[in-house]
Fold each of these.
Amino acid sequence: MTVSDLQVKAGLHAFLNRYGNTRAKQEVLLFWALHPNAQFGKLALLSAMKCTRLEVKKALDDMVEDKLVEIHCNSGVVTYSLTSNDEIRQMVTLLRTFDWSQRQLLFRHAHTVNCLYGAIPEQGVS
């Protein structure tokens, strides 16, 4: 593993510790990793997740507040999309390069860190 690979992995861990601290947020992040250029209505997003609707709604609200997800309103129809921020998009889309077991390890590590040490202080994405 190169220094660059280690830096990317460390950056992704920090990103997941900050933004993927619940199962619902992890599912939403993975969803956007697989569909980074799409816009979906809330019902479509809720239907695609394995978490409860309340958990997904909370995750979406948090991600909108954190500017990971953007809300669009066209002719009264509300849709959501991944942010246009390139740095955040890069971190989210990086998730799709890992296979299922690697993603589970990343998410489990992020969850363990948050459970052991509490909330992660606000920091930059990189």
Amino acid sequence: MSETDAESQNLELKKLETEQMSIKYSLYKVIFGTLIVGVVGVFLPFVIEFIGTYRVQTNEHRLYVDKYINTAINSNIDVRIRTAEYFSYMSDEKVQGRWEKYYKFLQEIKSETITDMSRLEDGKSSANFQITEYLIELAPLNERDNPNKYKIILDLISDERYKIDYFKNELNRLEQQLQNIQ
């Protein structure tokens, strides 16, 4: 054997080794490619179904909450308070704190409004009592006997009636505010 024959055999062996490596590489590509496509093919429907289910649940939850949000915004204060109290216990932890703050806010507004109404009712009662006192004092008087005192008492009665009208108007305003707090 000559050196050229040995070199040509060596060259052929290298070609065969290269061809074998190429075949092995192609086989590995087919195996791993098939494996990856298979895994993706198996898990992709589950991922798509999970995303679809999550979207449906999120949308249903949004619609559910929207229904109550409209109630919490558009109704009278008692319905708002009940709705806020419900969601302060039943909502997700992410929004539960905001519902609790809203509930406390509504409770404070209702309490302040009721206190104001009570104060106005007391003032109205006091004015009514004062008018009654003035009328009792005015009853035995005659305008001709003591015109100055008669005029003073009529002026006082007029002032008390003005106070009563003011208290009535304020009470009506507060009752309206209590029903429709914006």
Amino acid sequence: MENKLRFILLAMLFSLVAMTFGNESEPVDQKQIEWFGNSTLKGVREIYPQVALEIVEKDTTKSTFTPQIGPLKQKNLQQQLEKMLKESGIRITNKFDAKSTDAPLSLNVTIFARVRNDTALPSYGIFVYTEALQPEIIIRDAKIRSFSRTWPMVPMGDGTRALLFCTAETIDDEITREVIQQVRNFIIDYSNANPSRRIVVPQPDSGQPEASPETPEQNVM
């Protein structure tokens, strides 16, 4: 029941912020920039990318992590995420320790799915969201440290959130397309926060980098 409630609340939150704040012309993390004058992505040198699939099966209430939902595979989305970042000129790593002050930014893409009980054919209600987490120190007490979401500071519009309804035939294409768009929004904000770096923003809906006169330095694990 707790996970069912979480899914419903997440869906309601997405719908609310999409109606209230949606504006594609602004950066995804516009509130962070308005309130504090800069982006939390500024100066980030290395990223730890992760994709997670989580599902609530039919007639159950507990969610579990899974490597595959229908034809949608976690490993394929993970490869897509890493490919987009590397081809954009963003260095990635597979080394991560959230307790370390030198921990890299963790870019997390989560696909939370619930099998629908009201359809004859297999179908899913799916919430897709992307967020970046970094080490933080609490201002009131520098001894208090955390590892928290810093991008977007305030999720707004559909830049990092999407509620979708998919069948077994459409889930792979629809979720992959949504993940590509959300990661592209991250790359756009990262590029704007780090103008001195030669970041190549992927073309819309393709995940492929736009043409650039210069090839960015190789960024591998």
Amino acid sequence: MTSHATHGEGVSAREAAAPPRGVAGRWATLTAGVLLMVGIMTMLRSGHGEWDVQHARTVFFWPGHFLTGVAETAIGLVGIACATREHAARAFLTVSGLFLIAWAAAGLVLDADPNDVFTRSGWLVGLHLTAGVVGLVAAGVSASRASRGDQVDG
């Protein structure tokens, strides 16, 4: 007895046309989802009146500035759009990884107020640094597998 799905019956055209998602696609989805959620909560929590530090509020464990929330939301939206194709997910992880690492470094190097855009909050710097480094590693692993032919590059 054979399964109908192996012959293409019962499978939508979209499912049949979609390439299997690799490391980059899965990590891009996770990273984008987390950054989108944190960005939206940061924007909602911090308000949007005047663009100064009085409008930054604590979100969970870290202070969140409205512009930080805007940047995280934008990165999350771009990541969701890129996560469907492996090569686009690799590009997203590379660019966003470098951006998030630079953002974390700016938070550590600049003498920022805890409520500033480049906050020195350990939690936020840790989130940006971890997402950036793991994103770069996932992009590298995905590129390595694609060059060996271990995964389909969509």
